[in-house]
Amino acid sequence: MKTFKSAYLRLIACLLLSLCLLTGCLGQGTAASLPQTAEQTAQAADGSQAGPSGPENAASGLSQADEESAQGYEEYSQDALSVQSDFDQLTDDLFREEAAASALTLHYTLADPAAYGITDYDRTLGTVSLEDSQETVTEAKELLEKLDGIDSRSLREDQRLTYTILSSYLNYLLAGEGLELYEKPLSSSLGIQAQLPLLLAEYAFYTPQDVEDYLTLLSSIGPYYESILSFENERAEAGLGMSDGAIDRVIESCNAYLLDADHSFMAETFDERLEGLAGLTEEEKAAYKERNRQAINECFVPAYQSMIDGLTQLKGTGKNDMGLSHFSQGKAYYEYLVNLYTGTSYNDVQSLKQAIHARMAKDLMEAGRYLNEDPTLADQASDYQFSLTEPEAILEDLAAQCQQDFPPIGEYECHIKDVPKALEGILSPAFYLTVPIDRPEDNSIYINNGSTDAFQQLYTTMAHEGYPGHMYQTLYFNSHNTCNLRKLLSFTSYTEGWATYVEYYSYGLNNGLDADLAQVLRYNSSFTLALYAAMDIYIHYDGWSMEQIGDYLETILGISDPEVTSEVYYQIVDNPVNYLEYYVGYMEIMDMREQAEETLGNDFSVLEFNRFLLDIGPAPFRVIKPYFNEWLVQQQA
């Protein structure tokens, strides 16, 4: 066993840094859906789509056949129907308010806002401030008070799930009251300054008004970034400022955007989108292109230079270059982040850490069975290749092979795009860019050719981002769910947990790998992600220094390179809870699957388990677990 452990941990050490910073899918909070007719919308509002009780039906919000719907409708009293109608109105109003809160959010949520009753909205990027955060808390309290005034027993099952999700989220959101200055709008890869340009570059033009809105957004970036700098100054005055190292890493990401319009991907992508917009004359196109170049040179680039200058002036004000626990209320803030962003069903950080340790040990043991039987697998794991290396072919293959274990979603379109070369060093290996709910055909997956190995990574990456990962899950949920608010709400640990779960599933498909080698690679990937998740807790909750992380990596993996230790450490310092969002979601799903397999034995169906998770949709796991327990009982009946 000692020989196996040594060989396996060498394998882990070789692949440790191949787990690049997981930035996820841009715009994951906005989602795609099949458009509703006015009649369908009216049906949803008056409660005529009420279905039978039970977690699977409650979770999905699926439309029932007319006869079943009428039968379900007749089960409710007039008082209950009134409560249901009021709740539908509340969620519809909340959807419109949240979607229209930001022009960027609105555009990624709806291609045609007017069709949803949204005509008046702020066309700037808005601001970031302590007052904004405090206002969010006030609004959350008001919404929670409204929910508390609703008799949830009168709601339909699908509404009750939405009610429970909202209540759970709001209660955990309010736990952060008083900690608003701990929020970090800037970080090297996940910060606003790194994500915003790509969201702007993918801002679709459906009408000439979209072009006008885009140019207004682009022109407002200066005041927006000024507000962020003011917020960072306020954080620094409160003793919560970024360390010099963190500032340097953000500045490095900003430098990638200091390109004039003649050399900027922002101009190139604008021109491409403009050419795809029908009905414009050549003169109008030329005028728009000139205005865009002017906005890039006079607004966009100067905003990034001002950000660099402002951050440079903040150097020396931030003293903590370690985890959150080294701030006075850092531990409390970390607990808040863990609960809010992972939605975990575990009671506290300590029990969560123990669960991570237990699954790490299990992965190690499972990989050991294969390596003990065939020690050459450790060497093969550093020199293997999937049979398919083109993203389009991989997506097609995954869709075909997943039919037996995943419910169908029908026809779909997906555009594969390359991350702009200038951004390869600061963006994730790949990501799925979600689309407006009324434009499900506009799916895009970006591949970062600078960090994604087509031979060893692309196959499982496409499973994570495309099919049956983010794209598939988004299309499935939004074609089965009738509540627009749920399509807007973002629960990253569910979506990333699902995508990680199916990514590891894809190792077991017919993909050109030896079956035993595929399992070693799967357990290796799971162990590596768990390692990062555990270190997230060690650094931010237990207060570990870089020296302690170095000792840990050397003891566990034999890694003694200080540059590796530094890169791992600061990835986690800069992005608290990021790796936990991925791993905790995956672990929660695996906990449920293993419980179902043990309870149901030969009656367990991968298809039905996956259908349950897909039907209930994005939600905190503390909400999902009771529904899962009831589903499990029903499966035994």
Strand percentage lies at under 5%
The number of distinct β-strands equals 3
Distance linking N and C termini:
43 Å
User: With helices defined by DSSP (H or I, 4 residues minimum), what is the helix count?
Assistant: 28
By secondary-structure content and strand pairing, the structural class works out as mainly alpha
Rg over C-alpha atoms, rounded to the nearest angstrom: 25 Å
Shape: globular
Helix content bin? 55-70%
Largest sheet: 3 strands, mixed
Q: How confident overall, as mean pLDDT?
A: 88
Going across the biggest sheet, name each strand in turn.
Answer: 1-3-2
Oligomeric state of this protein: single chain
**Unreliable stretches covering 5 or more consecutive residues:** 1-24, 26-74
Describe the structure.
- By secondary structure, this protein is mainly alpha-helical.
- 61% of the residues lie in helices and 2% in strands.
- It is built from 28 helices and three strands.
- Strands 1-3-2 form a three-stranded mixed β-sheet, with helices on one face.
- Helix 16 runs antiparallel to helix 23 (515-540) and helix 26 (578-600) packs parallel to helix 28 (621-636).
- The longest helix is centred in the middle third of the chain and has 32 residues, at 282-313.
- It is globular.
